[in-house]
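pasting input
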Amino acid sequence: MRALNHPNADSIELAGVLDALADPIRLQIVGQLAAAGGVVCGGFDVPVSMSTLSHHLKVLREAGLLRVTPDGSFRRHELRLNEVEGRFPGILSAVVDNVIGEFARP
Amino acid sequence: MRALNHPNADSIELAGVLDALADPIRLQIVGQLAAAGGVVCGGFDVPVSMSTLSHHLKVLREAGLLRVTPDGSFRRHELRLNEVEGRFPGILSAVVDNVIGEFARP
């Protein structure tokens, strides 16, 4: 597998973070990562094709929100919550809280 | 002037809010509104043409972030901070804090 590019925390941009989060499927992915404690190995439960999911994961990764590492035949997906919080305090955590709250609504 | 459409607070969507904020000029506009106490009558100090500024203000208004009302020959622009906070707690306030912090950096 080719090495995947991840921006350094210092080069993560606010508009890029917001743009990456501005999609219902990507919000679901971020919510599932947060609900799983920040790490998901393998897939996500979202109503899109594998190729569309790959695209969304790439957008999140390139914006600096997601770290993707090979883990045997799977990929390990980790939300870069602490790094993004360190750069833009309060934003990603508030988005996560809102998405998890949305899931929890009856 | 035609009446401008503003979504009700209940119909403001998270992905729409994030998408509207995901632009450096619109972040500057939101920052200037916040720095001015939430209301700006007339223009903004952004490096774009009047027509581009109008477009950005329309995007913010249609996402539910901005209330625009005629005020004589000017328009009054008001950040809908309390309404957006009521619907998605913590997100817009965190974005505002980060944008204002960015302006304040030497």
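fyi DSSP finds five helices and three strands in chain B.
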